[in-house]
Specification:
It is built from ten helices and seven strands. The protein is of the alpha/beta class and 282 residues long. It folds into two domains: 9-101 and 175-280, TIM Barrel (Alpha-Beta Barrel); 106-161, Orthogonal Bundle (DNA polymerase, domain 1). Helix 3 runs antiparallel to helix 8 and helix 6 crosses helix 7 (155-163). The longest helix is centred in the middle third of the chain and has 14 residues, at 104-117. The model has no long low-confidence stretch (mean pLDDT 97). The chain binds adenosine monophosphate and manganese (II) ion (MN) (3 copies).
């Protein structure tokens, strides 16, 4: 009987270098244990975990792809652009990511001030205790603190009640632009991927406008399969990938055991007729 081995590919994951719960090496070893054959670590606005993840991944015999997930603002919302297979030493990319990181501490202080007005003091210090990389402080660290002090039962409920637009702990923030993120990724020789397009609260037309602008700026791929998207989303984004001629990417968006519903490598495979993003890797 012929045995067909399918390559498990996960091109979207997080470590403690941003808002994940495991070290970069632990993410890589967990991926290997789950049968992953190709892994990208894509921490938010940060490449500091890549060397450690690569060493652990290669030791475990899996192919490692350098990655990053860049926070941008588009159409009034926070959108994420994943960069894959770029030169991690690229100066403009590193300066750009540094410029995004430098705004995060101030944003966390402003969110904490809003939560204090709401009656929950001390959130900045509390969130910082959860952030191994203080420059990367973000909403998940605040959420973990609010769960720890018993304000909400889990991280997801904190987001629903406090940390999204219209809720008392949310503040708007100046992220990078779409053009900047694409400029940095492409300038460093990487491939730009629109992350989890199903997560954004855009109308159909707004999403098409985003895809047009992304493609016009040199964006090559979209996440057809994501741990934070449904099978219906995968069908919709497969159609859009075919229509636009985008390469297709897939990933778990794993943040940690217990917090992510999909484990690293636990994302579904890509539909067979799409061209995988890894065909564009070096
Ligand atoms: P930030 O970069 O500080 O704006 O935080 C964004 C991160 O928060 C995302 O990358 C997710 O890890 C997490 N997140 C966003 N929305 C939710 C949600 N509804 N439930 C749980 N985590 C979320
Ligand atoms: Mn995250
Ligand atoms: Mn994201
Ligand atoms: Mn992510």
């Amino acid at each position: 009987m012929a045995v067909v081995s399918v390559l498990i590919v996960d091109l979207h994951s997080h470590s403690r270098a941003s808002d994940g719960l495991l070290s970069p090496a632990e993410v890589a070893r967990r991926a290997a244990g789950n049968g992953v054959g190709m892994l990208a670590l894509t921490d938010h606005d940060e490449t500091g975990g890549l060397a450690q993840a690569r060493a652990a991944a290669e030791q475990a015999g899996l192919r490692f792809i350098d990655g990053v997930e860049i926070s941008i603002e588009w159409g009034g919302l926070q959108v994420h652009i994943v960069g894959l297979d770029f030169d991690v030493r690229d100066a403009a990319l590193n300066a750009g990511l540094e410029s995004i990181r430098s705004g995060r501490v101030n944003r966390a202080r402003r969110m904490s001030a809003e939560l204090e007005k709401f009656g929950v003091p001390g959130c900045f210090a509390g969130a910082m205790r959860h952030a191994e990389n203080p420059n990367l402080i973000g909403r998940p660290h605040l959420a973990r603190h609010l769960v720890e002090i018993g304000v909400c039962k889990d991280v997801h409920s904190v987001f629903e009640s406090f940390l999204v637009p219209g809720k008392p702990g949310y503040v708007s923030h100046q992220w990078a632009t779409l053009a900047q993120a694409l400029g940095w990724i492409l300038g460093a020789g990487g491939v730009a991927v629109l992350a989890h397009p199903g997560r954004y609260k855009f109308s159909r037309q707004e999403l098409r406008d985003l895809l047009d602008e992304f493609k016009g700026l040199g964006g090559q791929a979209i996440e057809v399969v994501s741990g934070s998207q449904s099978p219906e989303h995968s069908a919709e984004f497969s159609r859009l990938a075919r229509e636009y001629g985008f390469l297709a990417s897939c990933g778990s968006d794993f943040h940690g055991p217990g917090e992510s519903s999909v484990d690293v490598g636990g994302n579904a495979p890509l539909p067979g007729d799409l061209t995988p993003v890894w065909t564009a890797f070096h």
